[in-house]
Amino acid sequence: MRNTLPQAARRWAIALVSLVVCGLLAQTDWANILAQEQRAGIAQLAPKQASGDLHIVEVDAKSLARNKQWPWPRDHHARLVKQLDVAGARSIVFDIEFSSRSSPEGDAAFAKALSEVENASVVLPTFGQRSSENSAQNIDALPIPELRQHVSLATVSVVPDADARVRRMLYGTVTDGTPRPSLSAQIAGVSGSVGQAFAIDYSIDPATIPRHSFVDIESGVFDKEAVRGRDVMVGATAIELGDRYGVPTYGVIPGVTIQALAAETLMRGAMTEIAWWPILILGVTAALYVVRSQSYAQAALRSLGTIAVLIVLDALAYHLGRTLINVVPTVLLILSAAAIQTVWLIRQKLRAESLVDGETGLPNALAFNAEAHDGIEFTMAAYVKDFDSIRAVLGQDLVGAFIERLIDSVASVYKIEQAYRADTRIVAWTHKGDYQELIEACEKVGIALQKPLNVSGHKVDTRIAFGLAAGADLDAASRAASHAAEEGRLWQAHEDAEAAIIEQRVTLMGELDEASDEHQ
Description:
It is built from 18 helices and 22 strands. It has helices spanning 7-25, 29-43, 61-67, 75-87, 104-115, 183-188, 214-218, 224-227, 255-268, 276-291, 296-321, 328-354, 365-370, 387-394, 399-411, 435-448, 474-486, 495-517, and strands at residues 54-59, 91-95, 121-130, 138-141, 152-155, 168-170, 172-175, 178-181, 197-199, 211-213, 231-236, 244-247, 251-254, 272-274, 323-325, 378-384, 420-423, 426-431, 453-455, 458-460, 464-470, 491-493. Strand 3 and strand 4 form a beta hairpin. The longest helix has 27 residues, at 328-354. It starts with 6 loop residues before the first helix and ends with a helix. 37% of the residues are buried.
């Protein structure tokens, strides 16, 4: 059959089309979210314990129940700072807003406690926010002036993704015209560019971060050795305080917990991120491997196997190399290549089925016309008379066996390279060479078929008529065979065949004259 596109070119075409499509898809929001969800799944393959060097002091439900109101007078924070400083905490980092004033006594007590800290460094938060929902103007919030004198300032800005989940944290932002580190960067002691983000390692289980209730620390009822030399982050975890965000895997968690996870990430070293497009280009090799599949099952196995390898490499890079690889575009590339190859295989199967006669398994008229018949002089068609009666006697299941026996009878007196089931009652083949051989074969077949054919124990009287056409013209041969059957003739030549026969006869006579003149 004629192939309009070489196999290698077709494979490359499928791979490159899949590459372009997936390259475009990779830049969409839904593909990015899909990649993030896949990364979250990878993170949970090997959950990690927190370092234990960072503790959270929670403004929890217990603390709210004890102190009755919120915001509290800041003498509560003053007592907390004193307790942690005496206990030997390395740093005390607040994720609580102090940009508005509390009671004068409370503000003064807190400022005094901050000025008297001896062992710990204290960090207070600052952040920027829009002046209104639809406004582009930002308003910076800093602690009140008297609280800034003996502390460091760090930002607590949280920037959720399009799906409202927090996956990344900034190294720092600018507030009040001054670049400031984020809480996490301050605790970890690392630096980064303002506005630059890093991925939070959500393989760290937030439940393993040591926690203490605010009121327990404030009242001194806690294990002081537990916080000695440790960083302590203070923030709200009570649901009614509302400082909560959606994150991968763990659902909605307090902002202070996200800040702590970000700090734990940087304490282990920020994760290296590899762009998606180099992996996608390398994935072309995998796509070519998939499009070489010869069956649906093979395409499925190769694509799933390749995707499994990618996921394993992604997991190893994440957990052993602290490297983030976005394999989702490459997975989409492989799935796209597998889908296109499967469609191609289905098309090939349907095409192959369309070229085969269902009753006999022989190639049909479509197959005949689809093939190149180089060097063919004639096409011969055999028309089975009274075919409906034969079918009725034998039954549908034995029609194929009958056609097979008929072809065997023809082949016993004439060599057929390939027979075709051209129509319900017509079998055809091609001939290279002299027409006389075909005419003689017709007569011999007619004699041979005077005896009934034995088809699975059934004796079948068979009468056929032959049609002859010049070249590879199946329609003309079939029409000639039909006319021969109608007129009761053994064979009939189509008009073009008659002309070809006359031409061969004239040529033959010329050759005979030459042979006679040369005494051959």
